[in-house]
């Protein structure tokens, strides 16, 4: 019995272009992440935590903490990308 084996090949540039035209790709850039994190911090920074319940205050602090982590992560990636040659 002979079995037919299909070998998948890399798509050609024309095939890639056709796929890109067929589907609408939206990429999230580091700048988008940093902007969203910044806006999140800006949205909650003026809220007086003393006027909120403990649960609400905890949520606000969590938003700020996560946003700072996002900004730090993106900045670290950009720094490593820009200065990777200097470390070698």
Summarize the structure in words.
By secondary structure, this protein is an all-alpha fold. The protein has a domain at about 30-85. It is about 65% helix and about 0% strand. It has 3 helices and no strands. It has helices at about 15-20, 30-45, 55-85. The protein is elongated and about 70 Å long. The model has no long low-confidence stretch (mean pLDDT about 85).
Which key terms come to mind for this protein?
88 residues; mainly alpha; 3 helices
Q: Which structural class matches the secondary elements?
A: mainly alpha
Largest sheet: none
**Low-pLDDT stretches:** none
Shape: elongated
The total of beta strands comes to: 0
* Cα distance spanning the termini: 55 Å
The H/E string reads HHH
SSE blueprint:
Blueprint: H1 13-22, H2 30-44, H3 54-87
Helix pairs in contact: 2-3
Short description:
The protein has helices spanning 13-22, 30-44, 54-87.
């Amino acid at each position: 019995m002979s079995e037919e084996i299909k070998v998948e090949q890399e798509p050609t540039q024309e095939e890639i272009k056709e796929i890109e035209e067929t589907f609408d790709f939206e990429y999230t850039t580091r700048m988008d992440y940093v902007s969203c994190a910044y806006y999140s911090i800006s949205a909650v920074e003026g809220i007086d935590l003393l006027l909120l319940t403990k649960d609400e205050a905890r949520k606000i602090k969590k938003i700020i903490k996560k946003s700072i982590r996002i900004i730090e992560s993106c900045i670290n990636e950009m720094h490593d990308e820009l200065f990777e040659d200097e470390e070698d």
